[in-house]
Amino acid sequence: MKVLFVADICGEVGLEMAEKQINRLRREEKIDFVVANGENAAPKNGINEKSLRRLLLAGADCITLGNHSFDCAEVLDFIDRSEELIRPYNYPQGTPGKGWCLLEKGAERLAVASLLGNVFVSNLPSPFAAVDDLLAEIKASCGVKNILIDIHAEVTSEKIALAYYLDGKVSAVIGTHTHVQTADEKILAQGTGYLTDCGMCGAYESVLGVDAALAIERFRTQRPVRFAQAKGKGQFNGCILEITNGKTISIKRINIVEK
Ligand SMILES: [Fe+2]
Ligand SMILES: [Fe+2]
Q1: Residues with CB under 5 A from ligand 2 (ion)
Q2: How distant, in Å, are the alpha carbons of 33, 42, 84, 171, 224 from that of 53?
Q3: Which domain holds residue 47?
Q4: Has residue 196 been placed in a domain?
Q5: 75 alpha carbon – ligand 1 mean position (Å)
Protein backbone atom coordinates (compact mmCIF):
# COMPACT_ATOMS: atom_id res chain seq x y z
CA MET A 1 0.00 0.00 0.00
CA LYS A 2 1.03 3.61 -0.46
CA VAL A 3 0.50 6.15 2.30
CA LEU A 4 0.83 9.92 2.02
CA PHE A 5 1.66 11.58 5.33
CA VAL A 6 0.99 15.33 5.26
CA ALA A 7 2.91 17.54 7.71
CA ASP A 8 1.33 19.99 10.20
CA ILE A 9 -1.30 22.07 8.44
CA CYS A 10 -1.06 25.70 9.54
CA GLY A 11 -4.16 27.84 9.14
CA GLU A 12 -5.68 29.09 5.91
CA VAL A 13 -2.53 28.81 3.77
CA GLY A 14 -1.96 25.26 4.99
CA LEU A 15 -5.57 24.29 4.27
CA GLU A 16 -5.36 25.78 0.78
CA MET A 17 -2.13 23.87 0.09
CA ALA A 18 -3.80 20.67 1.31
CA GLU A 19 -6.74 21.35 -1.01
CA LYS A 20 -4.42 21.94 -3.97
CA GLN A 21 -2.02 19.04 -3.43
CA ILE A 22 -3.57 16.05 -1.62
CA ASN A 23 -6.00 14.87 -4.29
CA ARG A 24 -3.44 15.49 -7.06
CA LEU A 25 -0.83 13.40 -5.24
CA ARG A 26 -3.45 10.82 -4.42
CA ARG A 27 -4.15 10.38 -8.11
CA GLU A 28 -0.64 10.69 -9.51
CA GLU A 29 1.09 8.54 -6.88
CA LYS A 30 -1.77 6.04 -6.51
CA ILE A 31 -2.07 6.67 -2.79
CA ASP A 32 -4.25 4.33 -0.72
CA PHE A 33 -4.37 6.28 2.54
CA VAL A 34 -3.73 9.93 3.45
CA VAL A 35 -2.84 10.88 7.01
CA ALA A 36 -2.49 14.59 7.84
CA ASN A 37 -1.45 16.37 11.00
CA GLY A 38 -4.05 19.06 11.69
CA GLU A 39 -3.05 20.43 15.09
CA ASN A 40 -2.65 24.00 13.74
CA ALA A 41 -5.46 23.95 11.19
CA ALA A 42 -7.77 26.36 13.05
CA PRO A 43 -6.92 30.10 12.86
CA LYS A 44 -5.44 30.21 16.39
CA ASN A 45 -4.08 26.63 16.57
CA GLY A 46 -5.96 23.46 17.38
CA ILE A 47 -8.66 22.22 15.04
CA ASN A 48 -12.25 23.34 14.55
CA GLU A 49 -15.02 21.45 12.80
CA LYS A 50 -14.79 23.59 9.67
CA SER A 51 -11.06 22.90 9.20
CA LEU A 52 -11.58 19.18 9.92
CA ARG A 53 -14.29 19.02 7.23
CA ARG A 54 -12.05 20.90 4.77
CA LEU A 55 -9.18 18.45 5.35
CA LEU A 56 -11.45 15.46 4.85
CA LEU A 57 -12.85 17.00 1.66
CA ALA A 58 -9.29 17.73 0.52
CA GLY A 59 -8.66 13.98 0.59
CA ALA A 60 -7.35 13.15 4.08
CA ASP A 61 -8.53 9.86 5.62
CA CYS A 62 -7.17 10.46 9.10
CA ILE A 63 -6.19 13.62 11.00
CA THR A 64 -3.64 13.47 13.80
CA LEU A 65 -3.16 16.15 16.46
CA GLY A 66 -0.41 17.02 18.96
CA ASN A 67 0.34 19.46 21.78
CA HIS A 68 -2.31 21.83 20.35
CA SER A 69 -5.02 19.13 20.31
CA PHE A 70 -7.34 20.98 22.68
CA ASP A 71 -6.35 24.63 21.99
CA CYS A 72 -9.57 25.19 20.09
CA ALA A 73 -12.23 24.51 22.74
CA GLU A 74 -14.78 23.62 20.04
CA VAL A 75 -12.90 20.34 19.47
CA LEU A 76 -14.64 18.91 22.56
CA ASP A 77 -17.96 19.14 20.68
CA PHE A 78 -16.89 16.76 17.89
CA ILE A 79 -13.75 14.79 18.83
CA ASP A 80 -15.71 11.87 20.29
CA ARG A 81 -17.88 11.47 17.20
CA SER A 82 -15.13 12.02 14.61
CA GLU A 83 -13.87 8.56 13.66
CA GLU A 84 -11.05 9.95 11.56
CA LEU A 85 -9.63 12.35 14.18
CA ILE A 86 -7.02 11.17 16.72
CA ARG A 87 -5.16 12.92 19.54
CA PRO A 88 -1.98 11.59 21.20
CA TYR A 89 -2.51 8.21 22.85
CA ASN A 90 -0.50 9.13 25.95
CA TYR A 91 -2.95 11.74 27.26
CA PRO A 92 -4.38 10.69 30.68
CA GLN A 93 -7.08 8.04 30.72
CA GLY A 94 -10.50 9.61 30.25
CA THR A 95 -9.26 12.33 27.86
CA PRO A 96 -11.86 12.94 25.12
CA GLY A 97 -11.10 11.33 21.76
CA LYS A 98 -8.87 8.37 21.05
CA GLY A 99 -5.19 7.72 20.35
CA TRP A 100 -5.39 5.51 17.28
CA CYS A 101 -7.76 4.46 14.53
CA LEU A 102 -8.02 1.80 11.85
CA LEU A 103 -8.28 2.77 8.17
CA GLU A 104 -9.69 0.22 5.74
CA LYS A 105 -9.93 0.27 1.95
CA GLY A 106 -10.72 -2.97 0.14
CA ALA A 107 -8.28 -5.55 1.47
CA GLU A 108 -5.83 -2.91 2.76
CA ARG A 109 -5.77 -2.02 6.46
CA LEU A 110 -3.64 0.55 8.25
CA ALA A 111 -3.63 1.47 11.94
CA VAL A 112 -2.62 5.08 12.60
CA ALA A 113 -1.57 6.20 16.07
CA SER A 114 -0.39 9.44 17.62
CA LEU A 115 2.09 9.90 20.47
CA LEU A 116 3.27 13.14 22.08
CA GLY A 117 6.87 13.53 23.23
CA ASN A 118 7.59 14.79 26.71
CA VAL A 119 10.95 16.51 26.32
CA PHE A 120 10.43 20.31 26.03
CA VAL A 121 6.86 19.88 24.72
CA SER A 122 4.55 18.29 27.29
CA ASN A 123 4.27 16.82 30.77
CA LEU A 124 2.53 13.71 29.55
CA PRO A 125 3.87 10.27 30.39
CA SER A 126 6.74 9.42 28.05
CA PRO A 127 5.71 7.88 24.74
CA PHE A 128 8.10 5.06 25.63
CA ALA A 129 5.92 4.29 28.65
CA ALA A 130 2.72 4.28 26.58
CA VAL A 131 3.67 2.65 23.32
CA ASP A 132 3.76 -0.97 24.54
CA ASP A 133 0.15 -0.63 25.76
CA LEU A 134 -0.76 1.02 22.45
CA LEU A 135 0.66 -1.85 20.38
CA ALA A 136 -0.97 -4.46 22.64
CA GLU A 137 -4.31 -2.65 22.23
CA ILE A 138 -3.99 -2.58 18.43
CA LYS A 139 -3.02 -6.27 18.36
CA ALA A 140 -5.95 -7.30 20.58
CA SER A 141 -8.42 -5.15 18.71
CA CYS A 142 -7.64 -5.90 15.05
CA GLY A 143 -4.21 -7.57 14.78
CA VAL A 144 -3.29 -5.34 11.86
CA LYS A 145 0.37 -5.49 10.75
CA ASN A 146 0.56 -2.12 9.03
CA ILE A 147 0.98 0.50 11.73
CA LEU A 148 1.95 4.15 11.25
CA ILE A 149 2.92 6.29 14.24
CA ASP A 150 2.98 10.09 14.25
CA ILE A 151 5.50 11.02 16.96
CA HIS A 152 4.78 14.64 17.75
CA ALA A 153 7.88 15.81 19.59
CA GLU A 154 10.39 18.63 19.85
CA VAL A 155 13.63 16.77 20.39
CA THR A 156 15.29 14.83 17.60
CA SER A 157 16.85 12.28 19.96
CA GLU A 158 13.47 11.38 21.50
CA LYS A 159 12.05 10.73 18.03
CA ILE A 160 15.05 8.76 16.76
CA ALA A 161 15.24 6.64 19.92
CA LEU A 162 11.52 5.87 19.68
CA ALA A 163 11.94 4.80 16.05
CA TYR A 164 14.75 2.40 16.99
CA TYR A 165 12.68 1.10 19.92
CA LEU A 166 9.84 0.39 17.50
CA ASP A 167 11.94 -0.96 14.61
CA GLY A 168 10.24 -4.11 13.34
CA LYS A 169 7.21 -3.54 15.60
CA VAL A 170 5.56 -0.87 13.44
CA SER A 171 5.68 0.02 9.75
CA ALA A 172 6.68 3.66 10.11
CA VAL A 173 7.46 6.37 12.65
CA ILE A 174 7.01 9.87 11.24
CA GLY A 175 7.89 12.96 13.26
CA THR A 176 5.88 16.16 13.46
CA HIS A 177 5.80 19.35 15.57
CA THR A 178 8.97 21.30 14.67
CA HIS A 179 7.47 22.41 11.32
CA VAL A 180 10.92 22.09 9.72
CA GLN A 181 11.42 19.14 7.41
CA THR A 182 14.50 17.06 8.09
CA ALA A 183 16.44 15.28 5.34
CA ASP A 184 17.03 12.02 7.22
CA GLU A 185 14.39 9.70 5.79
CA LYS A 186 15.50 6.09 6.12
CA ILE A 187 14.36 2.54 6.58
CA LEU A 188 15.67 0.96 9.77
CA ALA A 189 17.15 -2.55 9.83
CA GLN A 190 13.88 -4.33 10.68
CA GLY A 191 11.80 -2.43 8.11
CA THR A 192 10.46 0.60 9.97
CA GLY A 193 10.32 3.72 7.80
CA TYR A 194 11.46 6.87 9.57
CA LEU A 195 11.63 10.65 9.19
CA THR A 196 12.55 12.89 12.14
CA ASP A 197 10.24 15.70 11.04
CA CYS A 198 7.90 15.87 8.11
CA GLY A 199 7.76 19.71 8.08
CA MET A 200 4.74 21.97 7.60
CA CYS A 201 2.02 22.99 5.18
CA GLY A 202 1.61 26.74 5.52
CA ALA A 203 3.10 30.09 4.64
CA TYR A 204 6.55 29.74 3.07
CA GLU A 205 7.64 33.17 4.35
CA SER A 206 6.96 32.67 8.05
CA VAL A 207 8.44 31.55 11.37
CA LEU A 208 7.05 28.00 11.60
CA GLY A 209 3.81 29.25 10.04
CA VAL A 210 3.54 32.34 12.26
CA ASP A 211 3.76 35.90 10.90
CA ALA A 212 7.49 36.67 11.06
CA ALA A 213 7.03 40.24 12.40
CA LEU A 214 5.10 38.92 15.40
CA ALA A 215 7.67 36.22 16.13
CA ILE A 216 10.48 38.78 15.90
CA GLU A 217 8.58 41.12 18.25
CA ARG A 218 8.27 38.36 20.84
CA PHE A 219 12.00 37.60 20.67
CA ARG A 220 13.00 41.27 20.77
CA THR A 221 10.70 42.37 23.60
CA GLN A 222 10.68 39.10 25.57
CA ARG A 223 6.99 39.83 26.18
CA PRO A 224 3.98 37.72 25.15
CA VAL A 225 2.77 38.66 21.67
CA ARG A 226 -0.53 37.50 20.20
CA PHE A 227 0.49 35.30 17.27
CA ALA A 228 -1.29 35.06 13.93
CA GLN A 229 -0.61 32.67 11.11
CA ALA A 230 1.26 34.18 8.18
CA LYS A 231 -0.22 34.74 4.72
CA GLY A 232 1.42 34.64 1.28
CA LYS A 233 2.73 31.86 -0.91
CA GLY A 234 2.41 28.37 0.45
CA GLN A 235 4.53 25.31 0.98
CA PHE A 236 3.38 21.71 1.18
CA ASN A 237 5.49 19.17 3.08
CA GLY A 238 4.90 15.48 3.45
CA CYS A 239 6.25 12.06 2.69
CA ILE A 240 5.08 9.03 0.77
CA LEU A 241 5.60 5.56 2.20
CA GLU A 242 5.26 2.25 0.42
CA ILE A 243 4.37 -0.43 2.94
CA THR A 244 4.22 -4.17 2.32
CA ASN A 245 3.43 -6.82 4.87
CA GLY A 246 3.97 -4.44 7.77
CA LYS A 247 7.32 -3.11 6.54
CA THR A 248 8.29 0.07 4.71
CA ILE A 249 10.00 -0.62 1.40
CA SER A 250 10.36 3.00 0.27
CA ILE A 251 10.07 6.47 1.75
CA LYS A 252 10.12 9.70 -0.24
CA ARG A 253 9.99 13.26 1.08
CA ILE A 254 7.70 15.84 -0.55
CA ASN A 255 8.53 19.55 -0.46
CA ILE A 256 6.46 21.73 -2.78
CA VAL A 257 6.80 25.51 -2.73
CA GLU A 258 4.39 27.73 -4.70
CA LYS A 259 5.93 29.93 -7.37
FE1 LIG B 1 2.34 22.00 14.68
FE1 LIG C 1 3.01 20.78 17.88
Answers
A1: 66-67, 177
A2: 17, 11, 11, 28, 32
A3: 2-202+234-257
A4: yes
A5: 16
